[in-house]
Amino acid sequence: MVGFELGSVPFNSDGWGPPDSSLSVTNQISNAPFAPFSRSDKIGRIADWTRSISNRPGSNSKQNPTDSAFDFSGDDSFATLAADEDSSFRLVDTAAKSHHHGQHRPKFNPRWRFNPHHNRSQLPQRRDEEVEAKKREQEKERARRDRLYNLNRSGTNAGQRRESAVFKSSVDIQPEWNMLDQIPFSTFSKLAFSVPEPEDLLICGGLEFYDRSYDRITPKNERRLERFKNRNFFKITTTDDPVIRRLANEDKATVFATDTILSTLMCAPRSVYSWDIVVHRVGNKLFFDKRDGSQLDLLSVHETSQEPLPDVKDDINSAYSLSVEAAYINQNFSQQVLIRDGKKLSYDEPNPFATEGEEVASVGYRYRRWKLDDDTFLVARCEVQSVAEVNNQRSFLTLNALNEFDPKYSGVDWRQKLETQRGAVLATELKNNANKLAKWTAQALLANADMMKLGYVSRVHPRDHFNHVILAVVGYKPKDFATQINLNTSNMWGIVKSIVDLCMKLNEGKYVLVKDPTKPQVRIYEVPPDAFENDYVEEPLPEDEQVQPPAEDAQGPEANAAATEVEDKEVSTEAA
């Protein structure tokens, strides 16, 4: 057996450690400092539990935290000869440096600056823009996750938007109202009804001719949107229309409505925001009405978009401010693209709502009658805004304007894309404004317009919601456009027919149809006969419906002027 020999261990009678005498061995140099060969040698210390790996800059976080206790590679307590060599060695820090250290300043050499092939997008971004962009991406991602989560929970597209201002009912539901029924939109999708060709009962009003030079506008030669302060626009509800009253007295039909109200019903499954329609059952007749200052007079913007709009009502990009802005743009656009030389086509009767000598917007009201079944006929007042003459053929036009408020929200910059990728712009609009475009198309079909002209109107600057430019005008045949946006006419009439049938079964009285602010369904309430009469006196409308100018964000006198203008247009017309 091999023996194990233990060296001599000197005994120190005076204290701890080896006695001094034992160090004076001849082959050892006394007082020499101990230096390990490698800094990472764990000689001299066994472990340092006070050190955490995360305190070390540039450390590799994949390391196990407990290992750090044994890692002395970054320890400055070993003042070694090798330390000098190490000081010349640096790890490259790949993390993005903030710019205020003055490092990484982009060098503008002239060749780079004036090279036409460099897009704007390659300009060095400022640090805060990068941070903003990252934040926006994260926001989008979060919104997407929330959406998927909601979809998975509900199985429908409920919870599409989380914008509280929008999730208010368009009308205050009073406790004494009696809810009769609620119809989920899913039942609407299966409905179909083919309606025979309607007949024109009469046409009122006067139309001006469309100015074809607007078809040639491009973003490069845009035109400013003008303002038409002295032209009156009327948003008269069904029962206040003298022509409809006359037709009802003559028993020309049993159901009466306007194109705005019908299109709201026809496109109901696409709606996200709340809306309401008042229903009068009188004798054997049915009148569909809208309240004064109703949602239906404004135009929703980004209603079907997945990107939530700002929640603050005063914000110029809140749902409410945008809808007022869109209504105002639409009215001005519809008058600007006409040849305003006094040449007007007048029809059977003058504009039924105009008083003597007042200047009226170009509009033609076609009172048309559809047969829903043997005893049910529907008369609707349909609007066309203009007329065009091609090869001695006169055709009716509807004029509407899509508006861009801030490319950040839609992700598509119209000024860049309209000339080269108009399809992409329209596709984005169809995604974000599915309901509005479908309603316009339904109205064009109801009025039997030969052409619908869509204007692309943008703000002069994303923060200026009073000044706009027209970037392009495109014409579509309503039937083709309906096919393109997947709007099915027999389904539209199926919805109207089912709602008419449902209301016809009700007792005489007053009812209101309300789109639920959060769910894809519509409810029917029975309301007292005096509901909504002089709403503005007894009970002011909820704040987000009062049609008032966004004066809170008014910027100076011009802004106020524009705001009052919106108010005149939206409110005085109601009073008329």
TrEMBL record:
In which compartments does the protein localize? Cytoplasm
Swiss-Prot/TrEMBL domain comment: The RNA gate region regulates mRNA cap recognition to prevent promiscuous mRNA-binding before assembly of eif3d into the full eukaryotic translation initiation factor 3 (eIF-3) complex.
Organism, as annotated: Capsicum annuum
GO annotations under biological process? Answer: cap-dependent translational initiation; formation of cytoplasmic translation initiation complex; translational initiation
Question: What is the role of the protein in this entry?
Answer: mRNA cap-binding component of the eukaryotic translation initiation factor 3 (eIF-3) complex, which is involved in protein synthesis of a specialized repertoire of mRNAs and, together with other initiation factors, stimulates binding of mRNA and methionyl-tRNAi to the 40S ribosome. The eIF-3 complex specifically targets and initiates translation of a subset of mRNAs involved in cell proliferation. In the eIF-3 complex, eif3d specifically recognizes and binds the 7-methylguanosine cap of a subset of mRNAs.
Q: Does the keyword Hydrolase apply?
A: no
Q: Where is the composition biased (Acidic residues)?
A: 534-546
What range does the record give for the signal peptide? none
- Which lineage is the organism of this entry classified under, starting from the top rank? Eukaryota, Viridiplantae, Streptophyta, Embryophyta, Tracheophyta
Point to the regions of Basic and acidic residues compositional bias: 125-148
Skewed-composition ranges (Basic residues): 97-120
What are the GO MF terms of this UniProt record? mRNA cap binding; translation initiation factor activity
- Relate the assembly described in the record: Component of the eukaryotic translation initiation factor 3 (eIF-3) complex.
Composition bias, Polar residues:
52-66
- One Pfam entry for this protein is eIF-3_zeta
Q: Where is this region: Disordered?
A: 52-71, 95-163, 534-576
| Protein name per UniProt | Eukaryotic translation initiation factor 3 subunit D
Q: Name one GO cellular component term.
A: eukaryotic 48S preinitiation complex
Q: Which InterPro entries match?
A: eIF3d
Please provide the record's keywords in A-Z order. Cytoplasm, Initiation factor, Protein biosynthesis, RNA-binding
Per the record, the similarity remark reads: Belongs to the eIF-3 subunit D family.
Give the superkingdom in one word: Eukaryota
**Positions of the UniProt region annotated as RNA gate:** 295-309
Report whether Membrane shows up as a keyword of the record.
no
